[in-house]
Design goal:
With 730 residues, the protein is α+β, with helices and mostly antiparallel strands. It has 18 helices and 30 strands. Residues 1-20, 34-50 and 663-730 have low confidence and may be disordered.
């Protein structure tokens, strides 16, 4: 007989256990171990209960999600524990940065002047290079789908031994968490009260695939690693430091940790602190809250309805954030003034949220991002009116040439108003046609620089802006419907949009301009005789002194005569004389270096050569045009930027170069039915419909730029050409 066997329920195999059950058991064991280790030696002032960080928010999965899940299991988040150092990390993901040129602008910004510890330009570095090259980083990441931008700001950054070493160790740990190597560059900034680091991470992993980072690792995981490193180097916060920090925040006009605690504890924006706890720690917390509420009441953000019973303003959080931003701007302006000279009176500070209502002229004291990870910039200008101005939210291309110390002018942009007037004038019967306007511009020889397509493209871009606002309507690719009240509606549209006109007046400071041999900004001010807006304090006082020294310099050089009554008469055509003097000197110096002959261009001279480089002189910016065995310097025009290393031709008229792109072959065929007439330039053979055109029978036609031959094939009688034949200027 078979013995009876006592059956028991089967033991589940490890694989049969659920994933969530395993995590729950690990969490339970870790909590038991923490409870057995004893209570902490001190009770934090603002205890924060453990709250797990969601690992599926933002980007679900992605690299770094495993780190978030593991920390949730053990509940050992350093930023939720007392004694941990505070580090703030803000992040942003920028799509297609190399296509929109935002990456180049951002890297240029973080390397700007005045950000290093010694006041010099910021220096890029990477994991193994102390002098990383921005151009090479952009070349490596030109096909990246996105970039990650970080701003790492340790609260105790001044106490860290080396911010560069700290950043490299942090990035090494981040790469271990992500499970891949990443391409990154960084720059340290010491121009604020808290030193911080700007980091740019490429958008591909070590295998070349797009780099996808878990959203909560970006928000919390990176900050967790930064806090660990800061606490490891500086040690945990002591009890005295933890007590001092909330006390120091009581009177601050910004959102603090005490404010967040009050908002969490408020019941329908009402806080009742009448009950006094028996233990000393809660008593201290209650005392801090009462003192903060009294400070908020003084700001108008809280109201006491009974003894120790307060009602918070529903808009307390955005109001405190706005106050904090204003305080940060004032602190930034004070720091800029201290770096530039003596401390200024805060009553002379002017903060402009958009376009200033009047033109501001002065020198640049500082350039900052409007927000930590934004794209637009804020400029601090020491004006000639004796005030210090802060203009925020300016597009980077508008201030691309600004440097600290440059003389600039920021005001209302009149260019859009001029475009609106011309569009309305060219709109026949309420319809604007870019093609017809292009033909008219070519006939009228507009614009002076010869870029007719670019001239009309500015009109089209303006129309696209107005179309988004519902002011104009696109009929097709070559027709726009223009309202008759366009000039009345566009100012309303532009109001509130930051369309500030930012103009660079001089790249050189006042001290450099006093003894310069070129036509400086000081010379323009002297000849204008307009000193009514120049104040007797601040930069205005510096300008008055510099103008007096500059006038005395002209008297010593024989360019001006001082009368008996003290007035100074400058020689006629002073600016052109000074400009020619500087260009001749620089040309001779460059000729010795380049072993090329320097040719000075005069009015009416024609040139043909390659755009080699751009030079910044006291008289302005000039382009170096290289010819066969010589070179020359001509005034720079922005449109020449895209013609670098290309050949151009033109004529010097009225102090500027009227130019066009040079060609050695047939440029265009113009005919309605057949190829009857062609433009021919140079001596190269010209063909039309397979036949070579003999230039001996050509008639010369002088366009506004140069002599260009227009000719007809031998089988066409030029005298019998039809009205459909058209011509065009280059």
């Amino acid at each position: 007989m078979t013995p009876d066997i006592e059956h028991s329920p089967p033991t589940p195999s490890p694989r049969a256990r659920t994933h969530a059950g395993f995590f729950a058991q690990v969490r339970e064991i870790s909590e038991l171990h923490r409870g057995a280790s004893g209570s902490p030696s001190f009770e934090p002032i603002n205890p924060t209960p453990f709250t797990p960080v969601s690992s599926d928010g933002g980007l679900k999965g992605g690299r770094g999600s495993g780190f978030v899940r593991c920390r949730n299991v053990c509940g050992h988040w350093h930023h939720q524990q007392s004694g941990s150092r505070r580090v703030i990390i803000t992040h942003s993901t920028v799509a297609a940065p190399t296509k929109t040129a935002s990456a180049r602008q951002h890297l240029r910004y973080i390397q700007r002047d005045g950000t290093a510890r010694d006041g010099r330009s910021g220096q890029l570095y990477s994991g193994d290079d102390d002098h990383a090259d921005a151009g090479r980083f952009l070349a490596r990441s030109r096909k990246d789908p996105h970039h990650f931008r970080l701003v790492i700001s340790p609260q105790d950054g001044n106490e860290l031994n080396d911010l560069t070493t700290y950043t490299r160790e942090l990035m090494q740990q981040i790469q271990l968490d992500l499970g891949t190597e990443v391409d990154w560059v960084a720059a340290n900034h010491y121009n604020t009260s808290h030193p911080h680091v700007h980091v740019v991470i490429g958008g591909r992993d070590d295998s070349g695939r797009p780099l996808l980072i878990n959203g909560n690792y970006l928000c919390t995981g990176m900050r967790e690693r930064a806090i660990e490193l800061a606490s490891l180097e500086l040690g945990p916060l002591t009890v005295i430091e933890e007590r001092r920090r909330p006390v120091a925040e009581i009177d601050l006009e910004r959102l603090t940790a005490l404010d967040r605690a009050l908002i969490r504890e408020a019941d329908d924006f009402c806080i009742d602190l009448r009950r006094e706890p028996g233990r000393p720690r809660p008593q201290l917390n209650r005392s801090l809250r009462l003192r903060r509420l009294a400070a908020l009441e003084g700001m108008g953000l809280a109201h006491q309805i009974k003894t120790n019973v307060f009602v918070l303003n529903p808009e307390i959080e955005p109001a405190l954030r706005a106050r904090g931003e204003r305080a940060a701007i004032l602190r930034l302006m004070q720091d800029a003034c201290l770096a530039d000279g003596p401390l200024r009176d805060p009553m002379t500070f002017r903060i402009h949220q958009g376009t200033p209502p009047f033109a501001i002229t002065g020198h640049v004291m500082d350039l900052q991002l409007t927000s930590a990870l934004g794209h637009n910039l804020s400029v601090v200008v020491d004006g000639i009116d004796g005030r210090t101005h802060h203009v925020s939210d300016i597009e980077p291309p508008r201030v691309e040439d600004f440097r600290i110390g440059s003389i600039v002018e920021i005001g209302v942009d009149e260019a859009d108003a001029a475009l609106d007037r011309r569009i309305l004038a060219q709109a026949g019967q309420g319809i604007y046609r870019p093609s017809a306007d292009l033909a008219q511009a070519r006939f009228d020889f507009q614009p002076p620089d010869g870029d007719h397509e670019g001239f009309i493209a500015t009109h089209v871009r303006r129309l696209e802006q107005l179309e988004m606002a519902g002011i104009v309507a696109r009929i097709d690719e070559d027709q726009w419907r223009i309202p008759v009240d366009l000039l009345r509606r566009t100012p309303l549209h532009d109001h509130g949009r930051n369309q500030a006109c930012c103009r660079l007046l001089s790249d050189f400071d006042l001290s450099t301009q006093i003894h310069a041999d070129g036509a400086t900004w000081l010379d323009h001010r002297l000849l204008a005789h307009d000193n009514a807006a120049v104040a007797s304090n601040g930069f205005g006082d510096q300008l008055r002194g510099a103008m007096e020294l500059r006038a005395s310099h002209h008297v010593e050089q024989g360019d001006a005569i001082r009368q008996r009554d003290g007035t100074i008469h400058f020689q006629p055509d002073l600016l052109r004389t000074l400009r020619g003097r500087e260009v001749a000197r620089v040309g001779r110096e460059m000729a010795e270096i380049r072993a090329l002959a320097f040719r000075e261009i005069r009015e009416g001279d024609s040139i043909r050569g390659r755009v080699a480089s751009r030079l910044q002189l006291q008289s302005g910016r000039f382009a170096m045009i290289e010819m066969a065995r010589e070179f020359t310097l001509v005034p720079w025009r922005p449109i020449l930027e895209r013609e670098r290393s290309r050949e151009i031709a033109g004529i010097m008229r009225e102090g500027t170069l009227s130019w066009h792109a040079a060609r050695d072959r047939v440029l265009e065929i113009w005919s309605a039915a057949s190829a009857d007439f062609v433009w021919a330039c140079g001596s190269a053979p010209t063909f039309c419909n397979g036949e070579e055109i003999r230039l001996s029978g050509a008639r010369n036609f002088k366009d506004p730029h140069d002599r260009t031959a227009i000719c007809a094939p031998s089988h066409i009688d030029p005298r019998s050409r039809s009205s459909s034949h058209r011509t065009a200027f280059l």
